[in-house]
Each structure stands twice: as structure tokens, then as C-alpha cells.
Design a protein that fits this description.
The protein has 484 residues and is mainly alpha-helical. The protein is built from 16 helices and no strands.
């Protein structure tokens, strides 16, 4: 019971931290976009995208291995950590060298190169911070990591605001990231030394190195593919269209990125359940998967349709000069539907020991993404990148469902019925938004539209009284658990 309680607490902490982090991060991004030109914003996020891609080569799946192995054998924590830290030092040096060389070869201007160098400081510090927190995860403690993730964003926002409103240039705004990363590095190190009483020292054992490398390979493969898939489009945009288009692209990209906390929080509790049902109750596995798809369909449809109708109002929140982001936002938000429902699909495959299929699907999708971006960005810049996001997420859905049907006896008819009812309710909501958006504030429209959507969905029997009671009871149980 203690372990179950810890898991519930950790899930709650991480979910709350994730929501807080996303809210702060998107607020900060909005302020930046309102005060920077598309070109300046593009340079800022180009540097971050580049170092985010390279950061995975410092880790190469070692963090996942560390968490798993510490959880299995806590008594080996110091040995595991020491050997992994020794592995990461040469990886850090090589990755930093590769980053500097790539920036030189791509021919970026002096300011962009300097932004990449400052961002590289965060890249290195964050890599070691994540390693330290992987140990606390292995000891079933996510409290400190949850706190750090929110504090990190607060430091970035506070220091960034000081630099921005003091009239300092982009280098100082980027330095806010390095400052926050420095805090997280020191904080995570202190947690290990003071709270968990774990000695941190470099160790070397040839056989242990080989074992760690073997264990990390599957994680590394998937992580590299996923990181390239997520951030390579910004690099290609800068090379094929120009850095200004990277700034414009950040508007739709950040919006869909921020909204992903909804399926992330949902699947955090879904994954352990699917893992259990795979071993003990195959029929309940199928039921839970269908319900997960239903809930995410119901949530995503009004977001997609509402954003399409209100795209011009949403983009107007940002600075003048971002009007070109309206059509890309309308295209890329459609991909959000597939992004949402791909979460339970990926969770099901992982829970049912189909990690290799997930990795293969990601590899196929990444290749299609690169080819599609090279063709479409060349012709249509940000619109081309947005179309690629839609194509690739649809492809991930098709590939994922192919394997789902091999794992469980799944028929999508019930999910299609829910989709049809959600779409009907969503279209009526969208019509209302379209004809009233010129007269009513966007925030009020969102509240009215959302309320109308769920009332209509209830009337269409897309959701019923039992669903509402179930959701209410789940929240009440969480509240009671916190009180006790």
C-alpha cells in the first residue's frame, strides 16, 4: 500500500508541476513574442532547438536506464551513478564540439552563434541535472524534481523579463536559461548529497560500461528519433526559408506543445493500469484503451475546431508581424487531434511489450518528416512545415493502430460514434464562435463555446451521467487522498 500511495502522490506532484510549468512557459513565450520581432524570436528558438537536438547525444538513454536500475537495486545507486557520470563526461565534450562545428558549418551570423553557445551551457547542465533527478525517481521520489521544474521556469521568466525590459539584447535573454539551469544543477546535486545521502564520484568498470551501453541502446534509439522529429523542422526552416520563419513557426508550435499537458497528465495514470491489465485482464485492457481514446477525442475536437475559427484572434495576442502564423496554426491544430490520441496508442504498445514497434514507427515517421519538410518548406515555408506536422502525426496514428489491432481485439466503431457526436457538437459550437467572434472577447467566447459543446455532447449522448459521476469521483478520491 505504501508503494501505491507513493505512486499516487508522485503522479499528483508531477501532474501539478507539469501544468504549472506549461502555464509559466507559455506565458513567458507570449511576452517574448509580443516584444521581439519574428526574426529575433526565430534566432532565440533556433539556438534552443539546435542544442535540444544535440543534448540527446550526451544522455543516449542512460537516464532511463539509471531510473530503472536504481528502482530495481537501490543498493547499487552510487555504482550506477558513478559509472554513468564517467560515461557522460566524454559524451559531453564530443557533443559540445559537434555543436560548435555544426554552427560553424551552417554559416549562422555572429549573434546566432553566440546564442547557441550560451544555450549549450544549459544543454550541459540540464543533462547532468536530469541524471541526478533520475536517481531520485528511482527511489520513488518525484517531489524535488516537480518543485525544480516549476522553479526553473520562474527563474527563466524573472531573469528574462529583467533582461527584456532593461533593453538588453538576446544574449542576456538566453542567459536567463543558463542561470536557471545552474540553479537546477546545484539544487539536484544537493538533493542527492543532503536528502538522499548518496555519494557522487566518478567510477570506471569496463564490464559495467558495456552492460550500461547495451541497456541504454533501445532507449537511445527512440530518444534520438523523437528529438530529431520534434525539433529538426526549425533547423530546416532556418536553412531553407530563413530565421524569420522560425519565429513565425514558433506561434503554432508552442500552442500545440503547451496543450500536450492534457494527454500527458492523462496517460501518466493510464500507463500503469494498461501494464497491469496486459498481464492480468486482457478484456479490461481493451475497455480502458477504448475509454482513453473516447476521452481524448472528446477533449481534442472542440480545441481543434475552436482554434481554427479563432486563429486570427489568438495570433493577434502576439506582436504585429506574426499574421503569417494564422494559416499554419489552423493547419497544425488539426494535427493536435492525432497527437492526443497517439498518446494512449503509444502507451498501450509500450505497456504490452511492443517498444520495438513504437521505435520502428518513430523511425518511419522521422524519415517521412525530413523528406516532407525538405520538399514543402522549400515551396511554402511555415505552411509547408505545418503540413508536415499534420502528415506525420496522421502517419503515426495509422502505424500505431496497425499494431494495436495485433495486440488486442480492437474495433474502432464505438470510438467512431463518439467522434461523430463530438464533431457534430463541435461544428455547432464553431458556427456560434464564427458569427460572434467580432463582437465578443476571445476568452469569454472560449468559455461559452466550451460550455455549449459539452451540453450538446450530453444531449447527443456522447457523454452520460455515469461519465460525469466517474470524473467527479476520481477528483474527489484525489482530494481525499491528499487530505489523508
Amino acid at each position: 500500500m505504501t508503494r501505491i500511495t507513493n505512486i499516487a502522490k508522485n503522479t499528483s506532484y508531477l501532474t501539478l508541476a507539469l501544468i504549472g510549468q506549461k502555464v509559466i512557459s507559455f506565458t513567458y513565450f507570449t511576452i517574448l513574442a509580443r516584444n521581439l520581432s519574428p526574426e529575433s524570436l526565430g534566432k532565440y528558438y533556433l539556438a534552443i532547438s539546435l542544442t535540444t537536438i544535440f543534448a540527446i547525444f550526451i544522455d543516449l538513454g542512460l537516464v532511463n536506464v539509471l531510473t530503472r536500475e536504481v528502482a530495481k537495486t537501490p543498493e547499487k545507486t552510487s555504482r550506477l551513478l558513478g559509472n554513468i557520470l564517467t560515461l557522460k563526461i566524454p559524451l559531453t565534450i564530443l557533443t559540445l564540439g559537434a555543436t560548435i562545428l555544426t554552427v560553424s558549418l551552417l554559416g549562422y551570423d555572429e549573434l546566432t552563434r553566440q546564442l547557441v553557445y550560451i544555450s549549450a551551457i544549459s544543454m550541459i547542465l540540464d543533462s547532468f541535472t536530469v541524471t541526478f533527478f533520475a536517481v531520485s525517481r528511482g527511489h520513488h521520489n518525484l517531489v524535488y524534481e516537480s518543485i525544480a521544474s516549476v522553479v526553473f521556469q520562474l527563474i527563466v521568466m524573472a531573469a528574462g523579463f529583467i533582461a527584456l525590459f532593461s533593453g538588453l539584447d538576446l544574449r542576456y535573454i538566453m542567459a536567463a536559461l543558463a542561470l536557471a539551469s545552474t540553479f537546477n544543477f546545484i539544487y539536484s546535486w544537493l538533493i542527492l548529497r543532503v536528502k538522499l545521502k548518496i555519494r557522487i564520484k566518478l567510477l570506471y568498470n569496463k564490464q559495467f560500461f558495456w552492460l550500461l551501453t547495451k541497456l541504454a541502446t533501445p532507449f537511445a534509439t527512440y530518444a534520438v528519433l523523437q528529438r530529431l522529429y520534434t525539433y529538426l523542422d526549425s533547423i530546416l526552416l532556418s536553412a531553407l526559408a530563413g530565421v524569420r520563419f522560425v519565429g513565425i513557426y514558433q506561434i503554432p508550435f508552442k500552442i500545440i506543445f503547451a496543450l500536450q499537458f492534457l494527454p500527458l497528465a492523462f496517460t501518466a495514470s493510464l500507463y500503469p493500469a494498461l501494464s497491469y491489465y496486459w498481464l492480468h485482464n486482457k478484456e479490461q485492457l481493451k475497455v480502458s484503451f477504448k475509454r482513453a481514446l473516447d476521452y481524448l477525442i472528446i477533449i481534442s475536437v472542440p480545441i481543434v475546431l475552436g482554434t481554427i475559427v479563432l486563429a486570427d484572434k489568438i495570433v493577434s495576442i502576439f506582436n504585429e508581424g506574426y499574421e503569417e502564423a494564422i494559416l499554419p496554426l489552423q493547419i497544425i491544430i488539426v494535427a493536435l487531434f492525432f497527437i492526443f490520441i497517439n498518446y494512449p496508442i503509444g502507451s498501450l504498445l509500450n505497456a504490452c511489450d511492443r517498444q520495438k514497434q513504437n521505435t520502428r514507427n518513430m523511425a518511419i515517421t522521422m524519415v517521412v518528416s525530413i523528406v516532407s519538410n525538405l520538399i514543402l518548406i522549400y515551396h511554402w515555408q511555415v505552411i509547408g512545415a505545418s503540413i508536415t506536422v499534420l502528415i506525420t502525426n496522421l502517419l503515426m496514428f495509422v502505424l500505431g493502430m496497425y499494431w494495436v489491432k495485433k495486440v488486442i481485439n480492437y474495433s474502432g466503431l464505438s470510438n467512431l460514434r463518439i467522434f461523430g457526436k463530438s464533431l457534430l457538437a463541435g461544428l455547432i459550437m464553431a458556427i456560434l464562435l464564427y458569427f460572434t467572434k467580432a463582437y465578443v472577447n476571445a476568452a469569454i467566447l472560449i468559455l461559452i463555446g466550451g460550455g455549449l459543446y459539452f451540453v450538446l455532447l450530453y444531449l447527443f449522448k456522447g457523454i452520460n451521467k455515469q461519465d460525469i459521476i466517474s470524473i467527479y469521483n476520481s477528483f474527489m478520491k484525489k482530494k481525499l487522498a491528499k487530505k489523508t
